[in-house]
Design goal:
It is built from 3 helices and 12 strands, in the order αββββββββββααββ. It has helices at about 1-20, 90-95, 110-115, and strands at about 25-30, 30-35, 40, 45-50, 55-60, 65, 70, 75, 75-80, 80-90, 125-130, 135-140. Keywords: Signal.
Length: about 140
Amino acid sequence: MFRSSIRTPALALCVCLFLAGCGNSGIVSVSGTLTYKGQPVTNAIVHFVPEKGRPSMGETDQNGNFTLLYDPQTKGAQIGKHKVFIMHNAAADAGKPGTVPGAAPKMSADQRELFSKYSGDRSKVEVTIEKSMSDLKLTWD
């Protein structure tokens, strides 16, 4: 009888510690602005990929502002070093008047250059996140 009374609280303590470790600790809020050649970058998806763990992403608005999402319920990114790349958000362009469904989006020469330089494995941009950031400036020129 004595042994089972010790095991129950010990088991409960182990379960609580396990559940506490499953939270989003180490995730901080991150928002900022993406510019290229002094102009805000619109209709872009910004990806932050940590060395280990889940990536975060955000969409730029008409002023180049973005807020990263760690998952659908959690804003932010994991603390640590991240590789940063962008993709064109074709879905945002699809709703614009005069856009032909299925046609390649119209982009300026600067936009084509930007998306070719900083997309996927071609991007050499790295950012270290150590704390919450509300004014991260990604100024790519």
